[in-house]
Design goal:
129 residues, 4 helices
Length: 129
């Protein structure tokens, strides 16, 4: 999203030379906390939960909320894929020894990855750290 928003900034400023956009890129939670301390014009998080928190505290005009992008998780396996892993459910195979994903406390995609692993590969009773 950084590249896309940087391109939008350049185009917008070229068309509107009297306006200087100030972009701030960080994880959705960090940006939410910044917004709670000062006004902004646009917030584009990858995490609906953060937007919901702002809305419930009166920082968002709900009729202005629009989904404009989406994402999905992908499974990447080592070259050769000797365990023939194809789906997230395949990760419950006892021969799978290591699974890597980004920090669920700092990243929306990490949170979604952990949630998917729990729900689809290991069941809700497991504890993935």
């Amino acid at each position: 999203m950084v590249e896309a928003f940087t391109d939008i900034e350049k185009e917008f400023e070229a068309e509107n030379p009297d306006i200087d956009l100030i972009m701030n890129f960080a994880n959705a939670g960090s940006l939410r906390m910044q917004i709670e301390g000062r006004p902004i014009d646009v917030y584009a998080p990858a995490d609906r939960e953060q937007m919901d928190i702002l809305a419930s505290n009166g920082f968002v005009y709900n009729d202005t909320r629009k989904d404009f992008a989406g994402s999905y998780l992908v499974l990447i396996v080592p070259k050769g894929n000797v365990l023939n892993l194809r789906t997230i459910e395949d990760l419950s195979n006892p021969e799978v020894q290591k699974i890597a994903y980004t920090d669920p406390e700092a990243s929306t995609v990490g949170k979604y990855a952990k949630q998917s692993l729990i729900e689809k590969a290991y069941g809700t009773a497991c504890n993935i750290n």
